[in-house]
């Protein structure tokens, strides 16, 4: 499993209705994309949920590197480049994945997704990496029991030694440490194939 995100930070007076319309008209295009576990179409608005910026920041969980590569080198990402310039694409290797315990109707399709929390933190020098990975996997499993959780993941970027925690919720403004995003749409063609538990 590979986690991936790019952030497009927009002017403070940008009409975020443009982003909402973009997702409303194009979001469904990845609803059956091969190799894609889930894509959360994320947006932050300046002043909402303590966000300092207007931002469009889709977050992906890929089941296969072929799926990720075909997206990056194909028309989907080229559309982003054409409209906003080429953003830095951040990616992390997956450590753990968990589905929420409440799998009500609409949960697997993403119809209930309303918000997401992303928390990034550096790994201090001297940290025992195996112990940290096990701790993150256990933390992800515990999060699965929280009311309203749709799914959660933990990952690490071994280039910068950064931990990523990411979770999607069925309600707005969830409690938790990190950046809060609105989920405008969730494409989840292969979410059922994402391996639950630790990834090693």
Itemize the secondary structure elements and their pairings:
Blueprint: E1 2-6, E2 8-10, H1 17-26, E3 36-44, E4 54-56, E5 59-62, H2 65-72, H3 75-84, E6 89-99, E7 115-122, H4 129-143, E8 149-157, E9 162-169, E10 179-187, E11 197-198
Provide a short characterization of the protein structure.
22% of the residues lie in helices and 36% in strands. With 200 residues, it is of the alpha+beta class.
What attributes does this structure have?
4 helices, 8-stranded antiparallel beta barrel, 200 residues, alpha+beta, 11 strands, Alpha-Beta Plaits
Query: How many distinct folded domains?
Result: 1
Structural class: alpha+beta
List unreliable stretches of 5+ residues: none
Instruction: Note the gap between the termini.
Output: 11 Å
What percent of the residues sit in helical stretches (DSSP H or I)? 10-25%
What does this structure look like?
With 200 residues, the chain is of the alpha+beta class. Helix content is 22%, strand content 36%. It has four helices and eleven strands, in the order E-E-H-E-E-E-H-H-E-E-H-E-E-E-E. It has an eight-stranded antiparallel barrel. It is globular, with a radius of gyration of 16 Å.
């Amino acid at each position: 499993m590979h986690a991936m995100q790019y952030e497009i930070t927009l002017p403070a007076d940008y009409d975020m209705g443009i982003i909402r319309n973009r997702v409303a008209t194009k979001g469904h295009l990845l609803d059956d994309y091969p190799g894609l576990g889930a894509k959360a179409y994320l947006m932050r608005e300046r002043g909402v949920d303590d966000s300092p910026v207007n931002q469009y920041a889709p977050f992906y969980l890929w089941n296969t590197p072929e799926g990720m590569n075909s997206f990056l080198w194909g028309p989907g990402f080229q559309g982003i480049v054409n409209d906003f310039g080429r953003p830095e694409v951040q990616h992390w290797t997956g450590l753990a994945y968990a589905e929420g315990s409440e799998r009500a109707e609409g949960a697997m399709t993403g119809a209930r997704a309303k918000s997401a929390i992303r928390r990034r933190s550096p790994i201090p020098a001297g940290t025992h990496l195996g112990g940290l990975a096990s701790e993150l996997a256990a933390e992800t499993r515990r999060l699965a029991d929280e009311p309203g959780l749709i799914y959660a993941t933990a990952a690490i970027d071994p280039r910068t030694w950064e931990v990523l925690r990411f979770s999607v919720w069925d309600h707005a403004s969830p409690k938790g440490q990190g950046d809060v995003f609105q989920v405008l749409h969730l494409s989840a063609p292969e979410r059922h194939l994402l391996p639950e538990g630790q990834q090693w």
